């Protein structure tokens, strides 16, 4: 009987020790989890530390720290690459302006001379391509300026309905030249908490995208939900099957595979919208493309 009591006592002690050890292990796991959460949220870059002496747990912690160090190295390399890329874009946009100015200057001098009708025709084609190159360079310059300057938006109540109307009115000659009809769905004024200059740039780039790629009439709508103000541009497109809707706002994306030009207009739209705390959306139904910009509503 005495032996049984001693055995039971030993077992109780062992169970208690195991329970304490398990509780300590759980505490260490919670500590590791807290440290990982701090790493994920960016509040610290310290390695994961462990207080309990356990071979397997120490190995696990060491491997976690190796992964974290590798991730940190990759992140720093990515930041450096992005910085060099931004500098490259800025340098390219500046370097291209000088020769383009010279090209346009010589084209103007040639136009003043005596030319045959065929030469005039060829000169107009050259001027058209020079103007297109000029627009691309301006997009390069604007994009490089925005990503490098890190502008802080001046958010204030903005009448989106009036602003979009004014922007569309300024592009009426361009729409007429392209033979495009614009339908602006009028409604009650929509006010957003936004930066006036950024919204103007956004709308202008959306209009230029329609002018460049629309295959028919353009429908523009300004509306609101319970939280957001929405600017929507809808137009038919050619070769809808070649458009990757998931990449349409990515920099340098172009839906026309036959073209070698870069796409920066919509990436600028996305950049400016996100700086104001908004989001961009794109939807392609059959041959109709809809681009939406959502920014916080002014309450």
What does this structure look like?
This protein has 299 residues and is of the alpha+beta class. The chain has two domains: 78-149, Helix Hairpins (Orthogonal Bundle), CATH 1.10.287; 156-296, Heat Shock Protein 90, CATH 3.30.565.10. It is 60% helix and 15% strand. It has seven helices and seven strands. It has helices at residues 2-41, 55-112, 117-149, 160-170, 172-178, 196-213, 265-275, and strands spanning 156-159, 182-185, 191-194, 218-224, 228-236, 279-285, 288-296. The strands form two sheets. It has a five-stranded mixed beta sheet. Helix 2 packs antiparallel against helix 3, helix 4 crosses helix 6 and helix 6 runs antiparallel to helix 7. The protein is elongated and about 125 Å long.
């Amino acid at each position: 009987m005495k032996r049984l009591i001693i055995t039971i006592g030993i077992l109780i002690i062992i169970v208690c020790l195991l329970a304490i050890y398990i509780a300590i292990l759980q505490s260490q796991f919670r500590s590791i989890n807290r440290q990982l959460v701090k790493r994920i949220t960016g509040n610290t870059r310290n390695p994961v530390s462990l207080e309990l002496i356990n071979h397997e747990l120490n190995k696990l912690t060491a491997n976690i720290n190796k992964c974290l160090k590798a991730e940190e190295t990759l992140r720093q390399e990515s930041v450096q690459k992005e910085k060099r890329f931004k500098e490259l874009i800025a340098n390219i946009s500046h370097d291209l302006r000088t020769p383009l100015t010279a090209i346009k200057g010589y084209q103007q001098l040639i136009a003043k001379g005596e030319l045959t009708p065929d030469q005039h025709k060829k000169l107009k084609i050259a001027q058209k391509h020079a103007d297109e190159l000029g627009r691309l360079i301006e997009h390069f310059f604007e994009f490089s300026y925005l990503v490098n300057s890190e502008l802080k938006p001046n958010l204030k109540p903005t009448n989106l309905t009036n602003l979009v109307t004014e922007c569309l009115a300024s592009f009426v000659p361009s729409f007429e030249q392209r033979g495009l009809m614009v339908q602006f769905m009028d409604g009650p004024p929509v006010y957003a908490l936004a930066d006036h200059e950024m919204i103007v740039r956004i709308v202008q780039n959306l209009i230029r995208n329609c002018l460049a790629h629309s295959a028919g009439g353009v429908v523009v709508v300004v509306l609101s939900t319970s939280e957001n103000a929405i600017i929507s541009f809808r137009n038919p497109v050619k070769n809808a099957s070649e458009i990757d809707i998931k990449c349409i706002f990515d920099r340098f994306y172009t839906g026309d595979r036959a073209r070698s030009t870069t796409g920066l207009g919509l990436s600028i739209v996305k950049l400016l919208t996100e700086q104001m705390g908004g989001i961009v959306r794109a939807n392609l139904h059959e041959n109709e493309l809809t681009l939406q910009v959502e920014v916080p509503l002014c309450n």
